[in-house]
Protein backbone atom coordinates (compact mmCIF):
# COMPACT_ATOMS: atom_id res chain seq x y z
CA UNK A 1 0.00 0.00 0.00
CA UNK A 2 1.40 3.38 -0.99
CA UNK A 3 0.36 6.38 1.06
CA UNK A 4 -0.72 9.61 -0.62
CA UNK A 5 2.20 11.90 -1.49
CA UNK A 6 0.87 14.72 0.76
CA UNK A 7 1.27 12.59 3.90
CA UNK A 8 4.53 14.22 4.97
CA UNK A 9 2.55 17.19 6.38
CA UNK A 10 -0.62 15.27 7.27
CA UNK A 11 -1.94 15.55 10.85
CA UNK A 12 -4.92 13.88 12.51
CA UNK A 13 -6.33 17.25 13.64
CA UNK A 14 -6.20 20.65 11.98
CA UNK A 15 -3.19 22.82 12.86
CA UNK A 16 -4.40 25.77 10.77
CA UNK A 17 -7.99 26.54 9.86
CA UNK A 18 -8.73 26.19 6.15
CA UNK A 19 -12.51 25.81 5.52
CA UNK A 20 -11.89 23.66 2.43
CA UNK A 21 -9.70 21.20 4.32
CA UNK A 22 -11.94 21.22 7.40
CA UNK A 23 -14.89 20.27 5.17
CA UNK A 24 -12.92 17.31 3.81
CA UNK A 25 -12.84 13.79 5.22
CA UNK A 26 -9.07 13.51 4.82
CA UNK A 27 -8.05 17.17 4.38
CA UNK A 28 -7.21 16.82 0.68
CA UNK A 29 -10.35 18.22 -1.04
CA UNK A 30 -9.83 20.85 -3.73
CA UNK A 31 -13.53 21.75 -4.28
CA UNK A 32 -16.07 22.73 -1.58
CA UNK A 33 -18.87 20.20 -1.08
CA UNK A 34 -21.45 22.52 0.51
CA UNK A 35 -22.55 26.16 0.60
CA UNK A 36 -21.33 26.67 4.16
CA UNK A 37 -17.74 26.03 3.11
CA UNK A 38 -18.08 28.55 0.29
CA UNK A 39 -19.56 31.04 2.79
CA UNK A 40 -16.63 30.44 5.17
CA UNK A 41 -14.07 30.89 2.38
CA UNK A 42 -15.71 34.15 1.26
CA UNK A 43 -16.22 35.57 4.77
CA UNK A 44 -13.90 37.81 6.71
CA UNK A 45 -13.46 37.22 10.41
CA UNK A 46 -11.18 38.98 12.85
CA UNK A 47 -10.63 37.46 16.30
CA UNK A 48 -11.90 39.53 19.21
CA UNK A 49 -8.89 41.47 20.50
CA UNK A 50 -10.61 42.09 23.85
CA UNK A 51 -10.61 38.41 24.84
CA UNK A 52 -8.37 37.92 27.85
CA UNK A 53 -6.50 34.94 29.19
CA UNK A 54 -4.47 32.10 27.79
CA UNK A 55 -6.09 30.12 24.95
CA UNK A 56 -4.19 26.96 25.99
CA UNK A 57 -6.05 27.07 29.31
CA UNK A 58 -9.45 27.90 27.80
CA UNK A 59 -12.11 25.40 26.80
CA UNK A 60 -15.20 25.94 24.68
CA UNK A 61 -18.42 24.31 25.91
CA UNK A 62 -21.38 24.16 23.52
CA UNK A 63 -24.75 22.52 22.90
CA UNK A 64 -25.91 23.76 26.29
CA UNK A 65 -29.59 23.91 27.13
CA UNK A 66 -31.06 27.40 27.50
CA UNK A 67 -32.15 26.23 30.99
CA UNK A 68 -28.56 25.56 32.11
CA UNK A 69 -27.40 28.22 34.57
CA UNK A 70 -24.00 29.81 34.90
CA UNK A 71 -23.80 28.54 38.49
CA UNK A 72 -24.44 24.94 37.46
CA UNK A 73 -21.80 25.03 34.69
CA UNK A 74 -19.31 26.65 37.06
CA UNK A 75 -19.97 23.94 39.66
CA UNK A 76 -19.74 21.13 37.08
CA UNK A 77 -16.42 22.30 35.58
CA UNK A 78 -14.83 23.27 38.91
CA UNK A 79 -14.23 19.59 39.64
CA UNK A 80 -11.50 19.55 36.95
CA UNK A 81 -9.51 22.42 38.45
CA UNK A 82 -9.54 26.02 39.60
CA UNK A 83 -11.44 28.28 37.19
CA UNK A 84 -9.87 31.66 36.49
CA UNK A 85 -12.55 33.09 34.13
CA UNK A 86 -15.95 31.97 33.00
CA UNK A 87 -18.27 33.43 30.37
CA UNK A 88 -21.69 32.12 29.40
CA UNK A 89 -22.33 33.82 26.05
CA UNK A 90 -25.67 35.63 25.81
CA UNK A 91 -27.54 37.32 22.98
CA UNK A 92 -26.97 41.09 23.26
CA UNK A 93 -30.55 41.87 22.24
CA UNK A 94 -32.59 39.32 24.22
CA UNK A 95 -30.16 38.54 27.03
CA UNK A 96 -30.87 34.82 26.55
CA UNK A 97 -28.00 32.30 26.61
CA UNK A 98 -26.74 31.32 23.15
CA UNK A 99 -25.93 27.75 24.24
CA UNK A 100 -22.18 28.02 24.66
CA UNK A 101 -19.56 29.16 27.16
CA UNK A 102 -15.83 29.71 27.56
CA UNK A 103 -14.02 28.53 30.69
CA UNK A 104 -10.43 29.48 31.46
CA UNK A 105 -8.56 27.39 34.02
CA UNK A 106 -5.54 28.55 35.97
CA UNK A 107 -3.55 25.51 34.86
CA UNK A 108 -3.24 24.06 31.35
CA UNK A 109 -3.45 20.51 32.76
CA UNK A 110 -6.89 21.30 34.26
CA UNK A 111 -8.19 22.46 30.86
CA UNK A 112 -6.80 19.24 29.37
CA UNK A 113 -8.62 17.21 32.06
CA UNK A 114 -11.94 18.97 31.34
CA UNK A 115 -11.37 18.48 27.60
CA UNK A 116 -10.88 14.73 28.09
CA UNK A 117 -13.57 14.01 30.68
CA UNK A 118 -16.42 16.50 30.24
CA UNK A 119 -17.08 16.00 26.53
CA UNK A 120 -20.41 14.22 25.83
CA UNK A 121 -21.61 14.72 29.41
CA UNK A 122 -25.39 15.02 29.66
CA UNK A 123 -26.37 18.40 31.15
CA UNK A 124 -30.06 19.32 31.49
CA UNK A 125 -30.99 16.64 28.97
CA UNK A 126 -28.46 17.69 26.31
CA UNK A 127 -25.15 16.09 25.36
CA UNK A 128 -22.57 18.85 25.57
CA UNK A 129 -19.52 19.35 23.36
CA UNK A 130 -16.18 20.38 24.89
CA UNK A 131 -13.14 21.47 22.89
CA UNK A 132 -10.27 23.90 23.27
CA UNK A 133 -10.90 27.49 22.23
CA UNK A 134 -10.01 27.71 18.53
CA UNK A 135 -10.33 31.42 17.79
CA UNK A 136 -6.85 32.23 19.12
CA UNK A 137 -5.25 28.79 18.71
CA UNK A 138 -5.98 28.15 15.01
CA UNK A 139 -4.80 30.72 12.49
CA UNK A 140 -7.58 31.55 10.04
CA UNK A 141 -10.41 30.38 12.34
CA UNK A 142 -13.99 30.95 11.10
CA UNK A 143 -16.92 30.47 13.51
CA UNK A 144 -19.93 28.31 12.66
CA UNK A 145 -22.18 31.33 12.01
CA UNK A 146 -19.95 32.16 9.01
CA UNK A 147 -19.98 28.58 7.70
CA UNK A 148 -16.91 27.45 9.62
CA UNK A 149 -16.52 25.54 12.85
CA UNK A 150 -16.03 21.84 13.52
CA UNK A 151 -18.11 18.78 14.27
CA UNK A 152 -21.25 19.33 12.23
CA UNK A 153 -24.03 16.77 12.32
CA UNK A 154 -25.17 14.86 9.24
CA UNK A 155 -28.76 16.01 9.79
CA UNK A 156 -27.72 19.67 9.54
CA UNK A 157 -26.26 19.14 6.07
CA UNK A 158 -22.98 20.70 7.23
CA UNK A 159 -20.43 17.96 7.69
CA UNK A 160 -17.14 19.05 9.21
CA UNK A 161 -14.03 17.04 9.85
CA UNK A 162 -10.63 17.76 11.35
CA UNK A 163 -12.12 18.72 14.73
CA UNK A 164 -12.76 16.85 17.93
CA UNK A 165 -15.85 14.98 16.75
CA UNK A 166 -14.45 13.97 13.38
CA UNK A 167 -10.67 13.84 12.98
CA UNK A 168 -9.24 13.64 9.47
CA UNK A 169 -8.94 10.14 8.07
CA UNK A 170 -5.51 9.34 6.73
CA UNK A 171 -5.53 9.63 2.92
CA UNK A 172 -4.16 6.63 1.06
CA UNK A 173 -4.19 5.35 -2.48
CA UNK A 174 -3.46 1.74 -3.32
CA UNK A 175 -1.04 1.24 -6.21
CA UNK A 176 -3.42 -1.30 -7.81
CA UNK A 177 -6.28 1.15 -7.35
CA UNK A 178 -4.39 3.84 -9.30
CA UNK A 179 -3.75 1.44 -12.17
CA UNK A 180 -7.42 0.36 -12.19
CA UNK A 181 -8.63 3.98 -12.28
CA UNK A 182 -6.27 4.77 -15.14
CA UNK A 183 -7.48 1.71 -17.08
CA UNK A 184 -11.16 2.67 -16.53
CA UNK A 185 -10.57 6.26 -17.68
CA UNK A 186 -8.88 5.06 -20.87
CA UNK A 187 -11.71 2.60 -21.54
CA UNK A 188 -14.30 5.33 -20.92
CA UNK A 189 -12.51 7.66 -23.37
CA UNK A 190 -12.48 4.99 -26.06
CA UNK A 191 -16.18 4.26 -25.62
CA UNK A 192 -17.02 7.98 -25.70
CA UNK A 193 -15.04 8.56 -28.88
CA UNK A 194 -16.72 5.59 -30.63
CA UNK A 195 -20.18 6.88 -29.70
CA UNK A 196 -19.49 10.27 -31.26
Which terms summarize this structure?
5 helices; single chain; alpha+beta; 27% helix; 196 residues; elongated; four-stranded antiparallel beta sheet; Alpha-Beta Plaits; disordered N terminus; two-stranded antiparallel ribbon
Structure characterization notes:
By secondary structure, the chain is of the alpha+beta class. It is built from 5 helices and 8 strands; from the N terminus they run βααβαββαββββα. It has a domain of 87 residues: RRM (RNA recognition motif) domain (Alpha-Beta Plaits, 2-Layer Sandwich). Strands 3-4-2-7 form a 4-stranded antiparallel beta sheet, covered by helices on one side. InterPro entries: Nucleotide-bd_a/b_plait_sf, RBD_domain_sf, RRM_dom, U1_U11-U12_snRNP_70-35kDa. It holds the Pfam family RRM_1. This is U11/U12 small nuclear ribonucleoprotein 35 kDa protein. GO terms for molecular function: mRNA binding; snRNA binding.
Question: Care to give the gist of this entry?
Answer:
By secondary structure, the chain is of the alpha+beta class.
How much helical structure, as a percent, in the residues? 25-40%
**DSSP strand tally:** 8
Task: Give the strand order, joined by hyphens, for the main sheet.
Answer: 3-4-2-7
Low-confidence runs: 1-6
The coarse overall form would be elongated
Looking at the structure, the CATH topology of the domain at 51-137 is Alpha-Beta Plaits
Question: Count of DSSP helices?
Answer: 5
Distance between the termini: 38 Å
Order of helices and strands: EHHEHEEHEEEEH
CATH architecture designation of the domain at 51-137: 2-Layer Sandwich
User: Would you identify the CATH H-level superfamily of the domain at 51-137?
Assistant: RRM (RNA recognition motif) domain
Radius of gyration computed on alpha carbons: 21 Å
Overall residue-averaged pLDDT value: 81
The largest sheet is: 4 strands, antiparallel
- Residue fraction in strands: 15-25%
- Please identify the top-level CATH class of the domain at 51-137: Alpha Beta
Helix- and strand-based class?
alpha+beta
